[in-house]
Amino acid sequence: MVDRMTPEKVGVRRTGDGTQRERVPVRIFDRPFEVARQVATRIADLTRKRAAQGRKVVLGLPAGSTPFGVYKHLIRMHCDEGLSFANVVTFNLDEYWPIEPDAVQSHRRIMHEYLFDHVDLPPSHVHVPQGDLSADHLVSYCEQYEASIQQAGGLDLVFLGIGRSGHIGFNVPGSGPKTRMRVVILDEITRKDAANDFYGDENVPRKALTMGVGTILDAREVILMATGEHKAGIIRRAVEDPMTEGVVASYLQLHDRASFYIDRAAASGLAREATPWLVRDFEWDFPMAKRAVIWLSETAGKALLRLEKADFHAHQLHSLVYAHPDIDELCRRVFDDIRHSIAYLEDLPQRERLIVFSPHPDDDVISMGGMLDKLVRNDNDIIVAYMTNGSVAVFDADVRRYLGVVEMSSAEIGLSDEAFAKFLGRKRTILEFLEAKRPGQVDMDAVRKLKASIRYAEAVAGIEVMGLTDVNARFIDLPFYRTGRAKKKPIGERDVQIILDLLMEREPGHIFVAGDLSDPHGTHRMCYDAIKQALQRYRVVAPQNHPLVWLYRGAWQEWDIHQVNVFMPMSKADMARKIEAIFKHESQKDRAMFPGAYDEREFWQRALDRNTATAEALNRLGLPEFFAAEAFVTTSEM
Prior knowledge:
seven-stranded parallel β-sheet, 638 residues, globular
């Protein structure tokens, strides 16, 4: 075993590129796709190198949502470039306990589905912790698993994700740096993060088998991969703060060949991304100066036009003062730039063709209900394109309720005796299925369609509050979503073509797109990617049409003030109308299927708090005071 725990190897790096606060090497890429490709390339390079030497390579692999892009690249390399896995030995990091190996949430099944069944990896080289063992065999099994790693020559490379509690593998907060393969009790955040896959955290196993932190630190190389804004906070703590058992990933600071591969969104909490002026020198342009001045106003607690040169010096913004000697003029320019981004009714599109893309059947009103209301008032020709049917987020109880409504209303809706008898037969079949349904089991086709209909009816009711009708709703139901599970298929050609067809049909002047990439199930990110691909093709086949893209954010986050170029003020009455529209989504009211791991608020509460917080932030900067405001980033490209 290599001793990587000597104190001299743990400390702050001293570099001139703004990374001096980072205690472990970090590689930042612009897009998640690039992160996955780089990690896959590193694994492939090591595999080929060992094969050329006639040696095996021993990999530690994860099975969470993070690695799927990496596995996709590895499969492509195997199929297109001849990358062989014949010399690869794998040890998976963890598995739920108890769980059957063929359960849809089983890491064994996931690994076969996403990697093992698509490459030439010898079955005898595959090791995945066994989740169906009896309790009295667990301790000896963990010891054997640990011994098998040593017998294989130790781990050459461990590839990790990171949980939002900072766990690696299933090493929950409190795990020490010398722990080995063992049984752990999962913490609350880990269970909530897994709730999507198990259809409720009450169905998530309370225990798991996991490779220990010490086992991971023994590996010759460790790569941790993370993407998305929702990982930014924990990445900052793991990378910049001192080691602590409260953030288990911080123990990677002990390893001399550990590195983090992350996208720019996951890096947004690091000092070199969040406050680069505090860690490096650079040439000031106006966007960066604006960002620094807004940060200073918020940090100093003073309105923009009340900032003084002394405030800049007191907060280490000396270089900005030297670049802009007239600080009053700079602050006024920043103030005016934000003031001019405030868009009233008359500043918004009027009598134009618009498409509002809504990933789920409620994102339109949750995220931009105020904007939608005003676009209707401005007599725009609007289509709200609901990209997925949202069926997996409907509780079985809602299906039972609506079936009961139909039964009790059969006379009023004119069902004949024959039709009513047929309905009762179908109802009985559906109820029998729901009664026998196991947690996480995929719904039968009839149930999925009923749940989709519930979401569609709610979506129409929501936009009716704004003055639209079912004519303005387009349910495009992209194929990637139709798995009946929280995990979706990759975006495919058919998904992109459906969106392209809509663009060709409508020829919109403006499109509204969810720029929120941190929803817990990843659907927003996938919808964004599909629209981006379709828009790129649209600009080739219809170069004369170049719609302006309005990016909005959803239930999980809001744009930072410096990013926004359109603030749309809302009165108290505007906000009440938006909340009324959100209330129409009754299946998501009171208790949503997928609310996210940290936030217990209902979606209407998140929308209210987010929109009022945006208005309060503008007020603190010294700008006009509004009850609430929605924020958008407009761009000609995606």
